[in-house]
């Protein structure tokens, strides 16, 4: 029920995910409206529906998670907790979806804070940037855990054995950055089992493919992601203006219209799937609010893939291997005693 | 002596600033090499030279400011302290120039931390983003002061009476962001004399012109700026690849080559002047290390303009007007007693 185009485009995208990718889905929301849409696609009865009275509004933030215990997102979380679903997909507003899922699914054991992972359109394979906005205030240990979350995500989505992890920073050398980032660099470069740390990555390298996973706090990550979107949009806007301004150029523009559209599609945020909220007891894929059927289909396929890869278990193992021991002590988890110790 | 193209391009740019813009300059560096360049331009003897034995290397950071007390940047700072210059321009590495100027010029009274202001290529006039990397760890009061610094800078460079100030954040509503940004929003929206606060600005609005000044910490600002540069570079790279890949498109590409180059020049970081270090007892314009003569000329013209606008005095007045009183108390400055008080 979330997003600008629900339920029409959402149902259309879900139907395509079932038909073309063999996804197994449950649709959660206002049953009569969803059934009507399924009828239009001629698949009524083939895709199960779970009714939910309410839906989160696009502008609703954290409070909605308490006010609307029977929103479609809350019900979908309930299905995950019951073991009837492995992941959920929503095109609802990020703040409401994140707050509801955190409340209903809870953080998975050992994970300090959740993070939103986003796949940047680099070549030959996407680069995972996290956190894109779930956790603004972090500690150095949180960033180490984000490296573990991102490694698990990249392993499943790219098939890489040891994805390279970079730390978003304002210089390439050690000692650069703010206090939290400097300390995170120390922790990561001192060697974290299972994490292939390759050092600092600067803003202009986000799209260069120098790392498979790039770690930062949710404030910086969100600003960087939106800055990237705005800059690409501006570059294409300027290009359009430039192409139509010169008479000789207009011919060329006509010839290139198709190439330009394809290119913009690839770079446009709506086409590279949604963000994925990691670190909870269940995977939450947040599609773009303006996503059309195609965007919803890719979000469903991504959710299916992450569930098939057992992302929650993989995160648990990766996080357990990291040396974020201060956190372990503070949260009452005992360190493994050294068996050689008397 | 700084930058990739010193002294050739630096001297050429300085000569153009004198000839075409009536700038009054002193060249600081290795006198024989500078004199040789001036000879080539036929202006030997017309532009004064102050000799400096040493120069900061491009990779040198904060330590260089102590190790090289007679670097060209250190000598230029000395000229400012003596009142023989009003501002300095360098194409040297940012870390070394910032560290040397902070050590030699010292922070101006009442200013907690310096900030680097950069002009983003928005229309119809540039948007000032600060801090682009001088101060990574900030307090809310520091961001209020950055708003004062940016206001002073925008008033002089754009001629606006009340430039609109935005706070870089991860949502438009109050209450968004990390702890420091949330508190800074409170301070700014409670009304700061002389600052026209217009609210939060998101990453994708940096180039939209919704504010004349955008304030953030040096970590986020540096990441955002470099992300923007990387995204624009990538968009044009993709465009080039796309244009040459399709046979029908190749003709168009030939027709548009000039338009594309002009557009890229406008967006390219080297052409929109350098960053300006604000908040010290003297203005420091940091040109891009790869700047050619044209970049150096615009940096000199910018320095001249800021000095003519008495930027240091204007910053002092703007900062004094802000309500960053906790800072005043902590630094032993007495609040003005209320004359109506018994």
UniProtKB/TrEMBL annotation, chains A, B:
<keyword id="KW-0808">Transferase</keyword>
<feature type="compositionally biased region" description="Basic and acidic residues">
    <location>
        <begin position="330"/>
        <end position="342"/>
    </location>
</feature>
<feature type="region of interest" description="Disordered">
    <location>
        <begin position="323"/>
        <end position="342"/>
    </location>
</feature>
<dbReference type="InterPro" id="IPR003664">
    <property type="entry name" value="FA_synthesis"/>
</dbReference>
<comment type="similarity">
    <text>Belongs to the PlsX family.</text>
</comment>
<keyword id="KW-0444">Lipid biosynthesis</keyword>
<dbReference type="GO" id="GO:0008654">
    <property type="term" value="P:phospholipid biosynthetic process"/>
</dbReference>
<dbReference type="GO" id="GO:0006633">
    <property type="term" value="P:fatty acid biosynthetic process"/>
</dbReference>
<dbReference type="GO" id="GO:0005737">
    <property type="term" value="C:cytoplasm"/>
</dbReference>
<protein>
    <recommendedName>
        <fullName>Phosphate acyltransferase</fullName>
        <ecNumber>2.3.1.274</ecNumber>
    </recommendedName>
</protein>
<comment type="subunit">
    <text>Homodimer. Probably interacts with PlsY.</text>
</comment>
<dbReference type="GO" id="GO:0043811">
    <property type="term" value="F:phosphate:acyl-[acyl carrier protein] acyltransferase activity"/>
</dbReference>
<keyword id="KW-0012">Acyltransferase</keyword>
<keyword id="KW-0963">Cytoplasm</keyword>
<keyword id="KW-0443">Lipid metabolism</keyword>
<dbReference type="InterPro" id="IPR012281">
    <property type="entry name" value="Phospholipid_synth_PlsX-like"/>
</dbReference>
<dbReference type="Pfam" id="PF02504">
    <property type="entry name" value="FA_synthesis"/>
</dbReference>
<comment type="pathway">
    <text>Lipid metabolism; phospholipid metabolism.</text>
</comment>
<keyword id="KW-0594">Phospholipid biosynthesis</keyword>
<keyword id="KW-1208">Phospholipid metabolism</keyword>
<comment type="function">
    <text>Catalyzes the reversible formation of acyl-phosphate (acyl-PO(4)) from acyl-[acyl-carrier-protein] (acyl-ACP). This enzyme utilizes acyl-ACP as fatty acyl donor, but not acyl-CoA.</text>
</comment>
